[in-house]
Amino acid sequence: GGAMSFLKRFPPPAEGVRHRQPDTEAVLAGRSLGAGTLYIAESRLSWLENSGVGFSLDYPTISLHAVSRDLSAYPCEHLYVMVNAKFEEAETKEAPMAEGEEEEDSDDDVEPIAEFRFVPSDKSALEAMFSAMCECQALHPDPDDEDSDNDYEGEEYDVEARELEQGDIPSFYTYEEGLSHLTAEGQATLERLEGMLAQSVSSQYNMAGVRTEDSIREFEDGMEVDMAPVVAGQFEDAEVDH
């Protein structure tokens, strides 16, 4: 039908197939597209119904993939794949939205999202399907994300990436870079923490000096003079001086 118009006839992929899973049902937006074979290939993810029509997804458009075992969310364990793209099938006429919602939906700044579920008849294949997805996804680093090291795997990478998109959190820095990116408030907090650390270290030093009357007196006498090296973290020197 018209809603299925994104299904095309094409030959099954032959090159770079990392995993092939026959007898796998494809479900888009809660509606079954039938049973077919899922091909996790290096170039793209393809599903072909047994009749020879199907669809392909490019890895850069796949924003998340995960093994779903939550049977309350969906009655069968499956590979869940979220795609930043629109498919006519996703807008099922069965669930009409309130008019207000539909208008909101057509806003330009709303990213199109489609949710696919690939349900293999053989549930023990899910881990292998997931791993193959991770490997292939790693071959397609996100061009927008220059900071990424491309060594993340699977869900963790995707979850972090989505949080980063939503919160404009700066990317991961080395320690020095991180210091230079701190806000003034962050700098002040850091200095306060360093000060507290130095204080607690000096009080440990004080405790250590409680062994004899002399060492307490010595420590207190030298306290004002030697506080600078203590704060700077040169405790050993301070000890040697006494």
UniProtKB/TrEMBL annotation:
UniProt KW Ion transport keyword: no
One Pfam family named in its UniProt record: Voldacs
GO biological process terms on file: cell volume homeostasis; chloride transport; mRNA cis splicing, via spliceosome; spliceosomal snRNP assembly
UniProt keyword list: Cytoplasm, Cytoskeleton, mRNA processing, mRNA splicing, Nucleus
Subcellular location as annotated: Cytoplasm, Cytoskeleton; Cytoplasm, Cytosol; Nucleus
Cellular compartments per GO CC: cytoskeleton; cytosol; methylosome; pICln-Sm protein complex; plasma membrane; spliceosomal complex
Chief location bin: cytoplasm
Alphabetical list of InterPro entries matching this protein: ICln, ICln/Lot5/Saf5, PH-like_dom_sf
Family per similarity comment: Belongs to the pICln (TC 1.A.47) family.
Its biological purpose: Involved in both the assembly of spliceosomal snRNPs and the methylation of Sm proteins. Chaperone that regulates the assembly of spliceosomal U1, U2, U4 and U5 small nuclear ribonucleoproteins (snRNPs), the building blocks of the spliceosome, and thereby plays an important role in the splicing of cellular pre-mRNAs. Most spliceosomal snRNPs contain a common set of Sm proteins SNRPB, SNRPD1, SNRPD2, SNRPD3, SNRPE, SNRPF and SNRPG that assemble in a heptameric protein ring on the Sm site of the small nuclear RNA to form the core snRNP (Sm core).
UniProt protein name: Methylosome subunit pICln
Protein's organism: Smutsornis africanus (Double-banded courser)
